[in-house]
Amino acid sequence: MNSLCEDCGACCQFNGHIELDAGHHIPDQFATADRLDGAPEGHCPAYNPANKLCRIYEIRPLVCQQFVVDGAACNYARGVVYGS
Ligand code: SF4
Ligand code: SF4
Predict the structure, then answer these.
(1) Counted domains in the chain
(2) In terms of CB atoms within 10 Å, which end of the chain has fewer, N or C?
(3) What is the DSSP letter of 17?
(4) What domain range includes position 70?
(5) How far apart are CA 54 and CA 46, in angstroms?
(6) How far apart are the C-alpha atoms of 2 and 17, rounded to whole Å?
(7) Is the beta carbon of 59 within 6 A of some atom in ligand 2?
(8) Measured at the alpha carbon of residue 24, what is the angle toward residues 41 and 56, in degrees to the nearest 5?
């Protein structure tokens, strides 16, 4: 994990949904057939707010694996969540 991500998780705290890759192995408790929908609390259902970590990090969706740390979307997420 990039050091910038430690104690952050801002990018995982937005409601919405993530389209999943065909053949994914994400457990049903987190995903429907083809997507991760936002939890009622507003964050990704696989996000653990207690430790700010992803519960399925090793098998997280491709879009999460390809998310650019310190990129525009990362900086936007941190700005919205932490104001920085
Ligand atoms: S918002 Fe950026 S720094 Fe924070 S966890 Fe996501 S990728 Fe890492
Ligand atoms: S699957 Fe994991 S890395 Fe991707 S948004 Fe959800 S909690 Fe974050």
Answers:
(1) 1
(2) C
(3) E
(4) 3-82
(5) 6
(6) 24
(7) no
(8) 45
The CA 55 to ligand 2 mean position distance, Å, reads 8
CA of 19 to the centre of ligand 2 (A): 12
Structure tokens at 10: 């801002």
Q: Which ligand 1 atom is nearest residue 71's CA?
A: 2
Token pair listed for 46 = 């696989």
Ligand 2 site, residue 56, Cβ cutoff 6 A: yes
Digit-coded pLDDT (tens) for 1-51: 889 999 999 999 876 677 888 887 888 888 776 777 766 667 888 889 899
Beta bridge partners of residue 53, listed in sequence order? 48
Which of 58, 60, 67, 68 is the pocket-test mutation for ligand 2 (most atoms within 8 Å of CB)? 60
